Amino acid sequence: MYFTDRGIEELAERRGAEEVTLTWVSDRLREFVDLNPEFETPVERLATWLARLDDDEDD
């Protein structure tokens, strides 16, 4: 188990039943980066990865 898995598991346990919009998630990511600018690059990579999940791998 990676260290990050603990946070992901906590998120699923505490908030897993909630329904949120991607706008809400985007706002929380922006808020997080504002408070923790050193994580700007990993958050940007995660956001980009999530945004492109449905892109064809052939492109």
Notes on the protein architecture:
The protein has helices spanning 3-15, 22-35, 40-51. It is an all-alpha fold. The longest helix is centred in the middle third of the chain and has 14 residues, at 22-35.
Measured as a percent range, the helix fraction is 55-70%
What is the count of helical runs? 3
**Biggest sheet overview:** none
> What gyration radius follows from the Cα positions, in whole Å?
13 Å
What fraction of residues sit in β-strands? under 5%
Distance between the termini: 33 Å
Number of strands: 0
Assign an overall shape.
globular
- Give the low-pLDDT segments: none
Indicate the structural class.
mainly alpha
Short account of what is shown:
It is built from 3 helices and no strands.
Fill in the keyword field for this structure.
59 residues, mainly alpha, globular
Task: Show the helix and strand layout.
Layout: H1 3-15, H2 22-35, H3 40-51
